[in-house]
Amino acid sequence: MRLRQNVHFFLLGMFVGLSLSGLVYWGFNSIWFGNHLTGHLGRTDVASLTPWLAPIVWEGTFDATLIDSIYKQQNITIATTLFALGKYTRFLKDFLESAEEHYFVGFRVHYYLFTDQPEAIPNVKLGQERYLTVKKVPSLNRWQDISMGRMGILEKLIENELANEADYIFCLDIDTKFYGRWGVETLGRLVGVIHPWFFNVPRFIFTYEHRRESQAYIPAGEGDYYYTGAAFGGSLNDVHKLTRTCREQMNIDAANSIEAIWHEESHLNKYLFYNKPSKLLSPEYLWRDISMCVGQVKIIRFSHVAKNNAEVRPNL
Ligand SMILES: CC(=O)N[C@H]1[C@@H](OP(=O)(O)OP(=O)(O)OC[C@H]2O[C@@H](n3ccc(=O)[nH]c3=O)[C@H](O)[C@@H]2O)O[C@H](CO)[C@H](O)[C@@H]1O
Ligand SMILES: [Mn+2]
């Protein structure tokens, strides 16, 4: 009898003890008693801050509802520039349809699309406060010139047209598609996206320009991250300075008959090394065309689509 009573007391004690510790744990983490220092937001498997204290945005590092509500009060416009020349017009439909589903949903977005064939632009239904302006540009017969030429065109666009039209700008490749949220968590003064092939490799693998003759030169052993040329953005002023500098540096290279190893991407990397971005986006914000499982990437938001370069580009 006594033994049974003891067992009962023991079980009751266990129950009360566990409940209390559960309550304390819940209390520390709950919205009622917890705070952002004891909460769950943050990642331990990846760096979410650069050594200069810029955030690196990964799934699990931000509260989407909260950040949406903050930016909702600001009545912002996000200019988004796209280029589709030659056969790259085929990527427009998927890009625009998926962007309407995932890209700054609920915010004012103005796409500026540069193309040599305005007639080939598909009719995609845009949401409320979503605008598309098409601008005709001359065809070019080297894909490298199309890709690099974007810097000068963006520089002029910001200078001549965007001043009172937009608050932020993102410049994105068109051979891409959205699969998940890309929202206001990406906004910042100067924003770079970590290249999906180089986020988990040592620096000596980074394909920076290492020839001293090029203006994109970065000495061996230097550099922070390797950024993709397929997506970057920020405030109008900062992106204007970036595009102007890259365009000037590419002009000097051209005058010296040298082309950086990865074209404007090399110049962008040089720029972002000496002008540190205020925010970095993880490779969730530009994934690879070849699907490969990588533990740290919990969600693919935006990705290159598979393409046959020899077939879509005007030259090799
Ligand atoms: C993953 C990544 O970082 N991608 C970069 C990479 O290759 P990519 O293979 O992604 O370059 P790409 O073929 O997509 O060309 C870049 C962009 O130029 C435009 N385009 C290009 C060719 C053409 O015939 N018509 C046309 O419209 C289009 O917007 C395209 O998205 O290197 C390029 C420069 O070396 C750029 O830096 C890209 O951003
Ligand atoms: Mn691309």
Automatic annotation (TrEMBL):
The keyword Transferase applies. GO terms for molecular function: hexosyltransferase activity; metal ion binding. Mn(2+) binds at D173, D175. It is a single-pass type II membrane protein. Binds 1 Mn(2+) ion per subunit. The chain crosses the membrane at residues 7-28. It is found in: Membrane. UDP-N-acetyl-alpha-D-galactosamine binds at Y88, D173, I174, D175. An alpha-L-fucosyl-(1->2)-beta-D-galactosyl derivative binds at H195, T207, E265. Its cofactor is Mn(2+). One of its GO terms (biological process) is carbohydrate metabolic process. GO terms for cellular component: Golgi apparatus; membrane; vesicle. Keywords: Glycosyltransferase, Manganese, Membrane, Metal-binding, Signal-anchor, Transferase, Transmembrane, Transmembrane helix. InterPro entries: Glyco_trans_6 (IPR005076), Nucleotide-diphossugar_trans (IPR029044). The active site is at E265. Belongs to the glycosyltransferase 6 family. PANTHER family: GLOBOSIDE ALPHA-1,3-N-ACETYLGALACTOSAMINYLTRANSFERASE 1 (PTHR10462:SF49), GLYCOSYLTRANSFERASE-RELATED (PTHR10462). This is Globoside alpha-1,3-N-acetylgalactosaminyltransferase 1-like.
